[in-house]
């Protein structure tokens, strides 16, 4: 049975943008598993589970729904052991650290850079939800979150510096081949690419070779989703 992947979209269903959904999409491609995607707007996420409270991504496999990109990756390795996403308990622990870093540092930066771009991508109903939820979270109007992009551009260099240093020693975060740790970070950059573009990352940036390798994976699957032109 084909796996069903529920992923977050805006008004254009051809441009899924959630970093967490991209982790799962790349994981399924890594595994070589057949899957179909189901577009879900912000206001449709909670209803994906009967008891409500769902987040994306959700996969449906053999009548079972699994929520959360990390739990999905663990499920895929347990259920479909070929082409492991982790390979060891140590790799799981490392990936937990990478996820913590990515969400606390990289995601926080992208939110500030892209929040207005994301808002523009949404249908009116989702725009109202997005504005209300984000302004409640930050305690200020959205327009005040995304200020001084020159300063943000400089901040980005420091945020990914440790990761860039690591890539001086190996082609992927996980080592010689990409695994879930790579998809965690790549999901964030793909989120940025789809919502705001990658023009703020120069061609000579230390992370560019890794990004190029990631974009080349699976016949350039990630590049088939159009980049924002901002």
Write up this protein.
- The chain has 9 helices and 4 strands; from the N terminus they run βαβββαααααααα.
- It is an alpha+beta fold.
- Strands 2-1-3-4 form a 4-stranded mixed sheet, covered by helices on one side.
- α1 packs parallel to α2 (69-79) and α1 packs across α8 (180-196).
- The longest helix has 33 residues, at 89-121.
Task: Briefly summarize what is shown.
The protein has 230 residues and is of the alpha+beta class. It has helices spanning 19-31, 69-79, 89-121, 124-138, 142-145, 149-159, 161-166, 180-196, 208-220, and strands spanning 3-8, 35-40, 58-61, 64-67.
CATH class wording = Alpha Beta
Kindly report the CATH topology: Glutaredoxin
Q: What's the count of strands? A: 4
Structural class: alpha+beta
N-C termini distance = 40 Å
Shape summary: globular
Largest beta-sheet characterization: 4 strands, mixed
Helix content: 40-55%
CATH-wise, what's the superfamily?
A: Glutaredoxin
The helix/strand order is: EHEEEHHHHHHHH
What is the strand content? 5-15%
For the residues shown, what is the average pLDDT?
95
Uncertain segments of ≥5 residues (pLDDT<50)? Answer: none
Based on the structure given, which CATH architecture is correct? 3-Layer(aba) Sandwich
Radius of gyration: 17 Å
Domains, number: 1
């Amino acid at each position: 049975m084909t796996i069903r992947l529920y992923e977050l979209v805006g008004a254009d269903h051809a441009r899924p943008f959630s970093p967490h959904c991209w982790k799962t999409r790349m994981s399924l491609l890594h595994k070589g598993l057949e899957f179909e995607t189901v577009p879900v707007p912000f206001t449709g996420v909670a209803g994906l589970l009967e008891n409500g409270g769902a987040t994306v991504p959700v996969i449906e496999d053999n009548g079972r729904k699994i929520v959360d990109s990390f739990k999905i990756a663990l499920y895929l390795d347990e259920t479909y052991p070929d082409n492991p996403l982790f390979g060891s308990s140590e790799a799981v622990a490392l990936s937990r650290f990478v996820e913590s870093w990515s969400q606390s540092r990289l995601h926080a930066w992208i939110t500030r850079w892209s929040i207005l771009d994301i808002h523009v991508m949404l249908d009116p109903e989702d725009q109202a939800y997005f504005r209300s939820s984000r302004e409640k979270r930050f305690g200020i109007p959205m327009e005040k979150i995304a200020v001084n992009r020159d300063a943000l551009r400089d901040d980005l260099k420091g945020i990914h510096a440790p990761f860039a240093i690591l890539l001086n020693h190996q082609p992927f975060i996980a080592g010689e081949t990409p695994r879930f740790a790579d998809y965690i970070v790549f999901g964030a950059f793909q989120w940025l690419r789809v919502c705001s573009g990658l023009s703020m990352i120069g061609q000579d940036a230390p992370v560019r070779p890794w990004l190029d390798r990631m974009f080349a994976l699976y016949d350039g699957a990630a590049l088939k989703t159009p980049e924002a032109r901002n």
